[in-house]
Amino acid sequence: MNRRNFIYLLGCNCISIGLTSCSSTPITERRQLKLIPESTLNAKAAALNEKVKKKEKLSDDKETLSKIKKIGSKIELAISEYFYKNNMPDPTINFDWEYILIEKNKVKNAWCMPGGKIAVYTGILNITKNDDGLAAVMGHEIAHAVAKHSVERASRGILVSTGTAIIDIASGGKLSQVNKTAGQNVVGMLSQIGIMNPFNRKQESEADYLGLIFASLAGYDIRETVKIWERMREANKGKEPPEFLSTHPSSKKRINQISTWINKIILEYPPIA
Ligand SMILES: [Zn+2]
What we know:
It is built from twelve helices and five strands.
């Protein structure tokens, strides 16, 4: 699929709002509405990240953490390098990247807050299984942050009903039932910036697409991505669906869409380093 088709599929929702508050997502060039400054959300995310680190038990598995950091820094570099080489502004210029591994085997989840605060729960490691798998999940989460989906979501809410989204962000929003295992306190905290609340389908699709690109640019085998989603589906057959699935339903349709992108992305976005 070429870029134009992708944009066509995703559509544009920035109608009659005024160009000043509209910008585009990197690479997919989907028009976005951004009324809330990125710096506001980033600052809030950074503060929350500090709280998460105090509340959660951080894993002492140094080997896995350094693997996560290594994969992360390869993705960071690949993103910056890509935008630099293409004379485009680096969307991660204001990021202050940080990686934590949270010791919770029951929680199969990972997230990336606005501004690049990334957490992986130990529970997702038996689904990601290898570096390519981990890069796929991290690439997807990082893509949400790079595409400023939280900024967009927060901004959209202001328009839809006055202040609702702001209140939603400020007061915790609605918590997913499935996220209970992650610990109410932390989930409540994360919900303040919309992490743990589902992104919309368009944003999910975009994060899938950009995530593949970022992992490929960073030198990972993105064919593993389909296998991960299959493993997710498999894990979903248990009593407690993985948290990642509550916000990322791995439908057949989604897996099919990802597989139609893979070969082209491998060719068009080879390892950049
Ligand atoms: Zn997602």
